[in-house]
Write a structure and sequence with these properties.
The chain has helices spanning about 25-35, 60-70, 80, 85-95, 120-125, 150-160, 165-170, 175, 190-200, 225-230, 245-250, 275-285, 310-320, 330-345, and strands spanning about 20, 40-45, 55-60, 115, 135, 145, 185, 205-210, 215-220, 255, 260, 265-270, 290, 305-310. By secondary structure, the protein is of the alpha/beta class. It has a three-stranded mixed β-sheet. A three-stranded mixed β-sheet has the order 4-5-6. A three-stranded mixed β-sheet has the order 7-8-9. The radius of gyration is 21 Å and the shape is globular. The N and C termini lie far apart (about 55 Å). Residues about 255-265, about 345-365 and about 365-374 have low confidence and may be disordered.
Length: about 375
């Protein structure tokens, strides 16, 4: 089938040249590149391999994982470190005052490189199985990066030309049977550091924030929020802010007009159509939206009781099946991310999402050189 997607060049979906960084630069320098360029991720290249391929990616999930280790390293004992090779390497590097970014190549969002003749269909095959980004090019000229969000936006713009895709867009979520009821959430009274640890250990880019008493969905925070607000902070105090207050900080730049909250909501109801879900994903620039019942209070800025979650991968899996892509499994990469996270954090696992109100990072990113003394 394919709807002609196999005849369309994936390069056309690219968002400009790939932002590179040498593998030997420090993590804090890589973070500065990430913020300065407002990039989704950086492509890491060994300095002696300028004319060859990249060795990995560095993104906001890695920033979150790095900060989480920095904040909790004082809890590690010798046995913990001996059984976690990467943590050992990072802590050893910290003693010299510099943790190179090559120690933080993204395991949750691994590097995928497609040839310059890759097609839109090959992107759909890749992203519907859980990969979030791909570099396209043959390294003889410019290379570009395409994300699953780029593909989703492209598909929405082209779907009206294809009857079966239009039909799917008009279907409610309840009829499509996508999404998961297994939702990871944090209470609004838990701390920023709690949420950081949850996302790092569970391999998540976003976590729901729910009301302590009602369980209603209040908002969501992401690793991008952590990279944007926590990493540049000059005080460790931000780690001890309750999530309810942190959400207010995230919302502040959006403000309100005529009393209406302009911060984008991250929830939909099960009766929402696929088209509405896609528009919500694109508007919030989030990889997932949460399913919630209709709020009892019509003025609620978010939703009612948390019922599930729908991701970009879930949506792309529908398009992939309609295009005849075989063996579509939207949960495969998620299982890999969680396995990767659990393998590096099993010795530091938590009995609950609460990890205490201690933990210190001296002005957050700059504390790298002090990891061994935290």
């Amino acid at each position: 089938m394919g709807f002609g997607f196999s005849d369309l060049d994936a390069l056309d979906l690219g968002r400009g040249n790939v932002i590179e960084v040498d593998s030997d630069v420090s993590v804090d320098t890589a973070c500065e590149y990430l913020f300065r360029n407002r990039a989704l991720c950086l492509a890491v290249r060994h300095p002696e391999q300028r004319m060859s391929t990249f060795s990995g990616l560095f993104d906001s999930a890695d920033v979150n994982a790095f900060l989480t280790l920095a904040a909790t390293s004082h809890r590690l004992n010798k046995d913990d470190i001996d059984t976690d090779e990467r943590a050992f390497q990072i802590l050893e590097a910290a003693k010299s005052g510099k943790v190179p970014v090559k120690l933080y190549l993204s395991e949750k969002n691994p590097l995928v490189i497609l040839p310059s003749n890759a097609t839109v269909l090959s992107l759909l095959e890749l992203f519907s199985r859980g990969t979030h980004r791909a570099i396209i090019g043959d390294f003889k000229g410019d290379v570009t990066m395409v994300s699953d969000m780029d593909l989703l936006e492209w598909l929405v713009n082209h779907a009206p030309k294809i009857a079966s895709l239009v039909s799917a867009l008009e279907q409610p979520l309840s009829a499509l049977g996508i999404g998961s009821r297994n939702v990871v959430s944090c209470l609004s009274t838990e701390l920023v550091l709690d949420a950081m640890k949850v996302m790092s250990e569970q391999g998540l880019s976003t976590v729901a924030v729910v009301d302590d008493e009602t369980g209603n969905l209040l908002s969501a925070i992401s690793v991008t929020d952590i990279a944007r607000l926590v990493a540049p902070s000059q005080s460790k105090d931000i780690l001890s802010i309750p999530l309810g207050m942190f959400v207010a900080i995230i919302k502040a730049p959006d403000g309100s007009q005529d009393g209406a909250d302009r911060y984008p909501a991250f929830s939909v109801t099960p009766t929402a159509t696929l088209s509405h879900v896609i528009q919500k994903l694109l508007a919030t620039n989030s990889h997932r939206v949460f399913l919630a019942s209709d709020p009892l209070d019509p003025g609620s800025p978010m939703g009612g009781y948390l019922r599930g979650v729908v991701s970009v991968v879930d949506v792309l899996s529908i398009f992939a099946r309609l295009c005849g892509v075989p063996e579509v499994d939207p949960t495969r990469m998620q299982r890999q991310r969680r396995a990767s996270s659990s393998s590096t954090s099993s010795s530091r696992s938590r009995s609950s999402s609460r990890i205490g109100r201690r933990g210190s990072i001296r002005p957050i990113i700059k504390s790298v050189s002090g990891l061994d003394r935290l």
